[in-house]
Amino acid sequence: MNLVHKAAESSLGLFSQSFIDAYLTLITSHGADMTATSAAGYTPLHWAALFGSHCVAHWLCRQLTAEDVNRGQPNQPNRTPLAEAAYGLDDLIQREPHSRRIRSYKITIGVLLRAGAVPCIARMPTATQRQQHRHRQLVLAECTTVLGELSGAVMWAINAALSPQHDHSMLLARLLPLAPHHDGAHPYPSPSNMAFAPHMSIAWKIGAFLYEPSAAVVTIDEYLIGESPLRRRVRAAVGHFVESAATQTSSNREVVGGMASVGGVMVTVPPLQCFAVREGASVRRVGLREVVHRARMDEAARHGVEEGAINKGFNEHLGDQDCQFSWQQLGRIDRQTGLFVSLGIE
């Protein structure tokens, strides 16, 4: 074993993530091998998983390839880091069901799943032995948690990208009515204060120069660490939503939806629906929530998470009927031609 193994064995929640990041960066920059194996075939990530060292696992997963994250032992290919974490969690639950370290193991499993270890679930036995069956169920429970919390990460990503536009447009909306300007045709009357309602829309359009699409990508990548179909789909969907929200709307209210007066009647306006689903000759519009939930449903079905375990909404179950589409059907409506254009998300 080397120093990276030792860090995985001895940290055990005693140090912060920033300290672990700095320490591991230091020792690996001076030659410590993050993929070295012990005499028993354990890599540092195996060791971190077995001991529930989630901070070490988090750092390693950001540096390693998907192959390393999902690597088994030389003579036991199914003894992956995910399997080791499940073993450690199950063993601790059986011995000390109220141990505080249970949470560390659950976080470690979540980190591995977010890093692309989900395919390893298929390599775990389903019902051959009672203990191994428990391991699989423990992992599936954490997989459900990871997928459920993805909606929060998506909201953080959108806010990170659009907050500069939102904040500056709010400031401009207060300043524009105070700016002297000219009304009417030539010869213009003397300058007067701006008093027309569209100043909110003007401020939002000016603020569009400041939105940061890269911030959304960074936020998604902080949550979904490893490369996977789920990450590709969510990144593409969030990217399209952010661009549409910043450049094709007239206000933040149009982005988030809410209550609006239509003909004197208050109605609920849905959030921005910038996606389109082609169904034969017809097209229906859907929002980002439906697209992200489709990605989560596919991931859940692929790896055996119980159907219906993932809620579409943030606080309540809103139904999955409008999420029934294939990725080949998903696109957008071109604003100039009115025609359906595929987004090419697969």
Entry summary:
With 346 residues, this protein is α+β, with helices and mostly antiparallel strands. The chain contains 13 helices and 8 strands. The longest helix has 46 residues.
By DSSP, the count of extended strands is 8
**Helical residues, percent:** 40-55%
Structural class: alpha+beta
Number of helices: 13
Q: Calculate the mean pLDDT score and round it.
A: 87
Q: Identify the overall geometry.
A: elongated
The span between the termini is: 41 Å
Strand content: 5-15%
Radius of gyration: 25 Å
Main sheet?
4 strands, antiparallel
- The topology string of helices and strands comes to HHHHHHHHEEHHHHEEEEHEE
Unreliable runs: none
Spatial order of the strands forming the largest sheet: 6-5-7-8
Number of domains: 2
Pfam family, one: Ank_3
